[in-house]
Amino acid sequence: MQVRMTIRITNFVGGKFHDSLDGAFSVSSPFFDYAVDVPNSCVLDLGDAFSVAKKAQVACASLSFEARREILKKAAERFIISDEELAHLVKMQGMPIRFVKQHAMYSRELFFHTANAAERRHGHALGHLGESMDVHGFELSLPPEGIAVAFIPPNDPAEAAFVLSHVVMSGAVIIIKPSQQEPYMALKIASLLTECGYPPGGINVVHWNTADATRSELTHFLLRDSKYRIFMGDYDSAHTMFASVENRNAKNCIFSAGKSKAIVDDGADLERTAESIIESSLYWTNNCVSTKSVIVVGEQNAKRLSEILERKFRDFMVGDPFNPDTTIGYVDEKTLDELEQVARGQNDFSYAHFHHNFVRVNKFQMNPLLVWLPHPDAESPFVSHEFPYTLAVMSVPTFEDAVHFVNEASGFLLEKKSMAVSLYATEASFTDFAKSNPGKLKSIIGLKSHLLFYNKPSTCLSPHLRHQGTDLTGFLSRPMTIVDSKI
Amino acid sequence: MMQETAFGELHADEQLVHDFEMQRARDEVRLREILDSYPDKNNIDPDTLPSETWGLLAWEFMDLGLRDRILAGMFRHSLARAKKAMPIYEQSLAYVDVCPELFESMEQLVQIPVLVKDGLHGFRQKVRSNPSLLRPTDKAVLMTPYLSGGTGIDNQTVGKSTPTWISERDLERESLALAFRCFLPGGFSKAMKFMNFYNLAHKGGEEIKRAINHLGAQVFLPRRPEDSVEQCLEYMDLFGITALAAVPQSPRDKKGAPKGGAVSFDDLYARKAELFGSKGTVKSAFVTGFAIPESVINLAQRNSLNLFSTWGASEAIPGATSTVLGPPTRICKYNNQHLLYFPHYLAVMDLTGAQPRFCQPGEEGLLLVTTIARDGTLFINYAIGDRATVISNHCECGRTTPVIGKIRREDNPGELSSGGCRYA
After folding, report:
1. Is some CB atom of chain A closer than 8 A to the CB atom of B269?
2. What digits encode the pLDDT tens for the residues A277-300?
3. Inter-chain contact A220–B274, Cβ cutoff 8 Å?
4. Which domains does chain A have, with CATH numbers?
5. Can you tell me the ipTM of this complex?
6. Model pTM?
């Protein structure tokens, strides 16, 4: 008996599922014999989306704080992910099913978390029309006036929930263009939140084929007529996109944490640090938001940390992404080819040392790669690129050198800052660290980063991480959110 | 048919249907009166007919045989005049053996040389050096040389427009046909407030303006060349525009941005969709081009927007039209258009064989334009450069002219410049 497919990709405009006015295109999995039809929207579809979004603004902004929180709560209660949906995500993303499931379920946690975080920071004042959810750090600051647009990458099932839970709490309206490689989760979350009470038209999802030359104007159109432009994912793509469409009225927000760095201070618990770094860098998705390079104070510490990491790397399991024990997902061939080329080239020139050779297990998979860079180098492809399942470790003589290197290698975001830096040190809390190390605090004040994670990894949206920030702007000279697991 | 007594209580759409049916009934009476005023209705000199004749809806619903005889009779006069007064035919060797007096049915058009613009026997180069070749010598009236679109197929044709000479009376003839035989069945009404996005310096733009005037609309708002999309939308709002005429899409540059300052239906809808259809004030749209894009058709269906199109070119307006009014089962919707006869005659012909022949339903061929009534340039069997498919000879709307569709530009220069007999 043929199994009936329930995954159907449509646009979601004005609270209704719509096919595009101008047909569909097929998107194939790079890894499996699997494809889905996706609407190939035209400018008229975008016109509809803008029209309903404009109309929904007052209704969305007028929702009380309680009503917004109730919507997220209801969404969390109703959120389920079926086996078919999981299978779809695995096939499109190549991510191991255990992580797909975990990240998909983060959506539910994010609905709770965002509402709670908003209440902690703003209380019920957030309900007033005209106020935005203005939070430093990686939480979104969304104005309730004007239309926001967001471009969502394919490699994390939770990102749509991350953006849209903020949209709900801000009473904003948004048009989302999901990646065509995984167009489903944004649609699912958008329809769920609307079903749970967010006004129809407040959240809209449109798809089109970005490789279709006849659709080249759509991105331009979306970026030109919006007030808030969110790009999740690869920085270079975001920069090219935003730079191509001038819109002085718009605020740009790029979430690009794929080149994040860790600083390991002298005296850090290396065993625990290694676990955290691995959680940040390898338990994430196959090629995105994670720690990619680790700067260790002291050569001995660096070597010791490398040995621990190397040992832990052996626990990773390559295999069928549908196997629940698999921890290394599929990576598209092109990316693997590029990495192989760089890795082998670096070997030839003895520029980097590998704890083990680059091993391509099959067409789509590799063993995790630990790279030792004898000299910190911001130009090294292992620092400047976002290679999957690859971690570069290097040492510097002093903490100040580490901060200096991070700043040197972090000038890629719009404000020439890193998205996030993880700091691993001895003290129990950041406050203690700051009090005990005034010299290092001085260096941190000069750290060019939007976020500083202290003794806990990553920008991972794990519900186990308490990523509410302590705003130390009075303590530091520049706005930076310190995310301290001990607070 | 609706009763006049119910006039004031009719729903808006019912009102349109009512107006159309009333007009059609009046036109049948009027056409009979006009034809009866001639001793032989099969031998009418079209030059002698009042302009209103060309705007009569009754032509489309007439018995086929009767209409063919009337058309052939008129065409005999036009053909004779063309041979005598149009330099391009007068000087043509291919026309030496053409005998207008033997012409009795439009089916005999297959025996008349095909006029082509390009290729070995094309007139483009000659006309570009001597535009008077296309101007009749027997009319001492002011004529405007309206230039063709210049949408060619290679660097020998693109941008190298040729003129169609048009008198004031010609504009009147064509705009009446456009008003009552295209716009009225397309759902345009007297009550409408209309905005025109076509260039008034083009023949089509000028005739749209006149046609809207013939319909007696409340507002005719032209888009000035300097008006941006945003300004146009502001004016549409300000004047409460209920109907518009626009191209479907603006031509784009390589980056996808509009070029040439055109404002299209897409541009307008994309920025303010709420103005259109069931939720907005704009209820009707006249969108022309080779074909209305599927996206615009889908949008019209989704949003209850009255949408129709008319085939026309500077050489002949109107040639065919789709409808909004009529039974739901009719096929003359959107890109399926009924051929309109008088003041022009469009035919879809297959020129690939030894002899030209009229295409049958399901067959694709070249569109040939023949002028029935005009002071200015008389085109006869002119392969204008478009292809079309005959969809059907029957339609539930009651019109007795063929329905054509899939109109597109011919992109094979050989196809246009070869095959069949031709101008030489």
Report:
1. yes
2. 887 777 654 333 467 889 999 999
3. no
4. 11-255 (3.40.605.10), 260-484 (3.40.309.10)
5. 0.84
6. 0.85
